[in-house]
Design goal:
heterodimer; A: 616 residues; mainly alpha; 4 domains; B: 328 residues; MetI-like fold; two-stranded antiparallel ribbon; 72% helix
Chain lengths: 616, 328
Amino acid sequence: MATESETLQRSGRFQYAEIKGKVFEAILIAATLVGLVALILLFGFMFFDAFGPLSASLEWYLLFFSTLVAPVSAFTLYCRRNPAARTANARASAAVFGGLVLSLAAYIVLRAMSPYGPLVYLITVSSMPLSVAVYGRYAENSYFVGPAMVLAMLLAIVWTFGSEVLLFPLLDAVFGLGNALLGGVPVLGSVPVPVGRGLLVTAIAVGVPTLALANSVLRRRTSRAGILAVFAVLGLSAAGTAGLDRLIRPILEVLPIWSAYAGVVGLPVTGILAFLLSRQRGMRAGMTAAVAVVGGGLAVVAIASAVSMDPSLWVVLFFGMGVPTAYVVGEAVISDRDGRVGVAGPFIILGGILVGAYLERLLSVTGPDSWVTPTLLTNSWNGLTATEAGAYPSIVGSIMIVSFMALMAFPVGVGAAIYLEEYAPDTGWKGRLANLVELNIANLAGVPSVVYGLLGLALFQNLLNFAPGLVFSAAATLGFLILPIVIVSAQEALKAVPDSLRQASYGMGASRWQTIRSVVLPEAVPGILTGTILALGRAIGETAPLIIIAVPTTTFTTPGGLFSSGAAVPLRIFSASANFAPEYRKGVVAALAIVLLVLMLTMNAIAIVIRNRYQR
Amino acid sequence: MSKKRETELSSLERSEFIVRKERLYGQLLAACAVLTIAVTVGIILSLSGQALTFFGHVSPIDFLTGQNWSPLSNTPSYGVIPLISGTLIVTVGSAVIALPVGLGAAIYLSEYASSRVRGIVKPLLEILAGIPTVIYGYFALVYLTPLLDAPLPIRQTIIPGEFVLVVPSISTFNALSASIAVGVMIIPMVSSISEDALSAVPDSLREAGYGLGSTKFDVSTSIVVPAATSGIVSSYVLALSRAIGETMIVVVAAGESPKMPTFPNILENFTESIETMTVAMVNIASAESLGETVAYESMFAIGLTLFAITLTMNYIAELISRQYREEY
């Protein structure tokens, strides 16, 4: 009897507990849904206003489904069943779409800056380290090549990018100090300081590396290659400093403009391809490929000139998209028997879009009344007619700011992470310093972005007297902002590399730097890239610091270089959201917001793909 | 014999050049790490330098206790209280949304959801944190405000002759939609940090709870959540400090009219336009060709206040998670 009543009692209590548990779970699900619903609302409203899907006719949807959705989903289904094809598809898609996006970005940035300038920079910055590397290949004891390359790169960057900004003010200060000191001595004070600062820069830039190299050559026995290298460095650094814009540029500008594009985009691509192929299949294959690529580029130019089009864009597309695609597809077709079909994926999408657009025009089907149009991406802003309004200067500005920012923040962030993870000891003053740095990074990550804007304002405008709102100051300010994010994610990636690998490498007699360079970093690169790309996605939408450092909210011309006035897409959204005309509020601005969101989501997706692909 | 061993030993030593090279790389990398400290020092120096000149013109007491903020008018006055109260209004509003919702989502994801659901929902929620804030602001201004305003004003008699509920219609720029947008933005911050804390609670504690006959509800609320309190609280503090420093949402959606809060009718604060500290900074910065005026310097003074507040909050969060971190 007693047991029966007890079970009854308990079952009653259980019933109550069960209801309580169910209600609790429902509340939790509702809480989770709040976030998701907000996401859907946000995207839904903007998507609806930006694309106007209701205005399209039924035929258009039929066309859309038959040319794009149906083939793509069929192919996706096929790939789901066939893992090898899926891998090949992912690689080919990355090559095609990544190449397309990167080469378009490179083209518009180069067009805004005029490609001759970047070509000069490319030649001067890369020739020094490259010549050191080439010399290192033929030198017997080549272990000094690594530091020499780092040094050469730093020097090259300082005296190409920085001679105006970094060296001249410094030299002015030195000269001023010299005058002040010498002025007190009666005889010396009357002697003017003999050299102009430009000459001094050249002398330092030419002299120091030459002397250093000459010294190292003389210490070992003199060899012909060594002497040649001394002269090569001498000549290159002379050309790189004195002749930067005055000497090389006029020579280059004689060349047609497409060759400048080809030089900036094609040289690195060809070099990387030749390097990859010569590693995989030997020197000869690499050379053949390089010759083939250059020949292909020339053929593209010839064809484009023959039909009297400007070959610049096509050259950039050929090198930026065509070559990587050919490399990936060729590799899959030759060596990946199972996944061969997978490489068709990106071409099905591209073909679907092209065929659909062609049929749409041919059959004159009414498409949706979309605000995301070529005008939006290629025109400059128009505050009166919404259909004429575009954000081309802002898009160029955003790309320039984010890419220069990545160039600045990535090496420093990864370097700091490597120091904290691999070098910093746990004890002693160095350990305390490392602890302080870690705490400091955690705090920096929480500093509001406006405050970084104030830092940029004080540093670049008040201290260095830059003009307001330069691309350089914007990029550097955002670089400070994302530095903690890059460092933390790189640290996570480095932590994930198992210690056994390091110990194996030390056991083989490798030094610490050798271990890091050839064991730890290759393992950690995917993780580091993931974090960095996420940080770039954050930076591309950052607005407040740019307003504080006075990047203009309304620009009608593209920024012409690092030291010209910047522009950015989020600033354009900010200034345009104050416009109350409905075709701006619920049309152009929504379309711009969609453009920005798509940029950010693409970056996130790339990061997630990299993470999933390499996560073990 | 011994001589041979000596040469072997010496050949095992690295040449001096390599040693120096290794040291050079170590120093280069250390320089990168030290640069982050330089950034902090730079922030503090640049903020306090200009702020000190500002406090030469306006006494800190007037700044911290003044009830009127109008730096750009002809008779400027620099009282930061209206800005701080504006910031507080937005922070409280966003906290009301984000803290419970974020915690709920965290508990669901860590205790209830299957790994498949978690794999889909978590990245989706994290997208919310990555959306550019200017887009949130635009969304709040153009879509959220009309949506909230549609049923307003409400004049509903609850008890005839006794109590009439009045909700006035909201103005174009208002604190309500801005705080909702800020709240949505910080949901993933609360949910992902809390979820990490919840899933760090070892399974043995859960199993012990089930073994004693607890239901899932009991285990979640009386075992897992208390065990993860430090993580949850520090996620709250971090999210709030993010909300305090949030700029673009408030600039676009909450307007720029600094005012003191109205007291008995707290809800009225949300229906009207306000101005936060961050908005005041953006306003001064976008007023062109100011030069080195007092208003320009006041921007740095607000920045310093903001920096001090967020730094303290982050430090508290760090302390909480260090102090109460349970080692399982």
